[in-house]
Amino acid sequence: MVKRCIVCNEAEAKYMIKDTSDYYCKECALENFSDLQLLITVEEVAQQLKEFLKKKTERLEKEEQESKEKSSEKDLNEQDNQDREN
Ligand SMILES: [Zn+2]
Question: How far is the CA of 53 from the centre of ligand 1 (A)?
Fold first, then answer.
């Protein structure tokens, strides 16, 4: 879905204010803000989101791996205890 500029409501929004949902096209952004450094590009946001999701997925995979390792360790310990009892 293409974001529209909230000022002219026509042009495709390429910029947004960080941590808000205010989107601007380049022209309106320049008109409202003398410095485009205040704004981040929509591509940048998409990129950050992608990175965030990637890290999250990696972390989940790692946690899953670790919990698997832990449970196999536990199995070994239980076996150990049984051996001792016998
Ligand atoms: Zn605009």
Answer: 30
Distance 4 CA to ligand 1 centre (A): 8
Chain segment 14-53, per-residue pLDDT in tens: 998 888 889 999 999 989 887 777 788 888 878 888 999 9
Query: Distance from the CA of 12 to the center of ligand 1, in angstroms?
Result: 8
Residue spans of the domains in the chain: they are 15-85
How many Å is the Cα radius of gyration of the chain? 25
* Sheet hosting strand 23-24, strand order edge to edge: 23-24, 15-17, 39-41
Tell me the torsion sign for CA atoms 47, 52, 57, 59: positive
Distance 43 CA to ligand 1 centre (A): 17
Distance 24 CA to ligand 1 centre (A): 5
**pLDDT at position 10:** 94
